[in-house]
């Protein structure tokens, strides 16, 4: 698949079916991230892939209301990092920026492999740290939920969220400038 095709195809689907998450699959996803650019090649991203049913259940208990669809995920990766792992230039700490680039490459790789990789921020970071025994000085940047786009009728529907279905709504230049003076949705 061409990069441009993966860019067009990737969506944050919520209606998920199970996939088998092998070591090789995880290695391919992590490799796509490792090849991403980062400040001085610091590669500040770290991933904790959770696929054992016991820890997956603990991870699912960290999710905020509205993210119940993620219970069908076959694997959840915690993206973790800390500012000491990357450049700090002036007042800009690059670890979050660079981790985002790494995750961006990973989710495009997943798309190429026919896998949904849905990033979420709706979780309780303290509970995630406890679930994966992550020391307190680390930052849980995001979680990535992995699965396969449901083909059959599913109890969770992507149809009720038209913004999640193609064609995707993309801001115009005017809208980008108007947003400068507006508060963003949280
Ligand atoms: C940092 C971040 C946080 C997100 N948090 C959530 C979330 O908590 N729950 C959810 O269902 N989707 C979440 N999303 C997915 C976005 O809603 C989605 O990417 C956006 O609506 C654009 O749709 P698309 O990914 O299908 O292009 C998040 C995405 C990002 C990048």
Q: What does this protein structure show overall?
A:
The protein has 186 residues and is α+β, with helices and mostly antiparallel strands. It has one domain: NADH Oxidase (3-Layer(aba) Sandwich), CATH 3.40.109. It has helices spanning 3-9, 23-34, 53-60, 95-112, 125-131, 173-178; strands at 16-17, 46-50, 75-81, 88-89, 92-93, 116-120, 139-149. Strands 1, 2, 3, 6 and 7 form a 5-stranded antiparallel β-sheet that branches. It has a two-stranded antiparallel sheet with strand order 4-5. Helix 1 (3-9) packs across helix 4 and helix 2 (23-34) packs across helix 4 (95-112). The longest helix has 18 residues, at 95-112. The protein is globular. The N and C termini lie far apart (34 Å). The model has no long low-confidence stretch (mean pLDDT 92).
In short:
This protein has 186 residues and is α+β, with helices and mostly antiparallel strands.
What does the secondary structure layout of this molecule look like, with pairings?
Blueprint: H1 3-9, E1 16-17, H2 23-34, E2 46-50, H3 53-60, E3 75-81, E4 88-89, E5 92-93, H4 95-112, E6 116-120, H5 125-131, E7 139-149, H6 173-178
Helix pairs in contact: 1-4, 2-4
The structure holds flavin mononucleotide (FMN).
Residues 11-12, 67, 119-122, 142, 163-164, 168 line the site of flavin mononucleotide.
